[in-house]
């Protein structure tokens, strides 16, 4: 019985340790040059779910340590308070500067984690952050062309592992763009 108890404690410690590691750190740890990993839908759904639960400050501060105080203040001042990526994507009054900071940090992660599988999660989060910015009324949020933005939104909507709330945000932003153009939304 003591052995089983120790196994459970160790498993709990491992899970807690994994939850505190940024996905990019895991990618770097397991970076095997020339090795191609094929992620299953189940794997990606689990990674996406974990990303949504992660604290925004952890990722922003690791990407931009010199701006830690500024990011902490933005998160505190958001009403309701924004702590996780899920809250950022689902919030109605999230400061545009905070969303844009996340967009820029995630863009850096996409570039640095190409081919790891983590880049898929970062890519979905990047387009979701752009969608939140567009729905909040912000314009000129990216240098992507309208076609590239539409392709990115379409890609996110085609991923079965992206949760329904995020897909709704992306679909809404795509609708805003279509309405501005006066064309029907294909999403």
Question: What does this protein structure show overall?
Answer:
28% of the residues are buried. It contains ten helices and no strands. The protein is globular, with a radius of gyration of 18 Å. It is mostly helical and 187 residues long. It starts with a helix and ends in a 6-residue tail after the last helix. The mean pLDDT is 78. 68% of the residues lie in helices and 0% in strands.
Short summary:
By secondary structure, the protein is an all-alpha fold. It has helices at 2-19, 23-29, 41-53, 56-63, 68-77, 85-90, 96-112, 118-135, 146-157, 164-181. Helix 8 (118-135) packs across helix 10.
Q: Could you tell me the mean pLDDT? A: 78
**SSE string:** HHHHHHHHHH
What would the principal axes of the Cα set say about the shape? globular
Described by strand count, sense and barrel closure, the largest sheet is:
none
Low-confidence stretches: none
Number of continuous helical runs: 10
- Report the radius of gyration as a whole number of Å: 18 Å
Structural class computed from helices and strand pairing: mainly alpha
What is the number of E strands?
Answer: 0
Estimated share of beta-strand residues: under 5%
Q: Considering DSSP H and I runs of 4 or more, what fraction of the residues is helical?
A: 55-70%
Measured between the Cα atoms of the first and last residue, the distance is 55 Å
């Amino acid at each position: 019985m003591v052995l089983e108890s120790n196994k459970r404690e160790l498993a709990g410690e491992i899970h807690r340790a994994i939850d505190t590691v940024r996905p990019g750190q895991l990618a770097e740890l397991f970076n095997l040059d020339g090795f191609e990993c094929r992620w299953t839908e189940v794997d990606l759904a689990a990674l996406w779910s974990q990303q949504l639960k992660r604290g925004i400050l952890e990722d922003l501060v690791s990407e931009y340590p010199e701006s830690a105080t500024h990011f902490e203040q933005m998160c505190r001042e958001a009403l309701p308070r924004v702590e996780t990526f899920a809250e950022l994507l689902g919030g109605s009054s999230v400061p545009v500067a905070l969303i844009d900071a996340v967009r820029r940090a995630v863009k850096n992660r996409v570039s640095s984690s190409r081919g790891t599988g983590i880049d898929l999660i970062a890519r979905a989060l990047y387009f979701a952050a752009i969608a939140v910015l567009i729905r909040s009324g912000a314009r000129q949020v990216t240098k992507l062309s309208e076609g590239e933005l539409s392709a990115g939104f379409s890609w996110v909507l085609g991923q079965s592992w992206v949760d329904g709330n995020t897909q709704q945000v992306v679909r809404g932003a795509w609708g805003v763009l279509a309405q501005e153009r006066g064309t029907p939304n294909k999403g």
